[in-house]
Design a protein that fits this description.
Layout: H1 2-13, H2 16-53, E1 67-68, E2 71-72
Antiparallel strand pairs: 1-2
């Protein structure tokens, strides 16, 4: 019995046009957020690739205790 009254108040506060507008705005926000997230992921992927594969000649990243092609790193 109380649900019918609440439904009536919801309809009065948020008419159908307003609900459609809010849903439309939420959909637009979701699309913008998804595009932004894809853009950020692409930038991070490009940055990671450039860090790993676009180093100057002779520049290698060696972590302590890791093996090189010729054996253990001395030092």
């Amino acid at each position: 019995m109380g649900l019918e009254n609440n439904d009536w108040y919801i309809i009065q506060i948020f008419p159908e046009e307003v609900n459609e507008m809010m849903i439309s705005k939420a959909n637009r926000l979701g699309i913008v957020l998804a595009v932004f997230l894809v853009f950020i992921l692409a930038v991070l992927l490009l940055l990671t690739y450039s860090i790993l594969y676009c180093r100057p000649p002779g520049f290698t990243v060696v972590f302590p205790g890791k093996y090189l092609a010729g054996g253990l790193q001395s030092g």
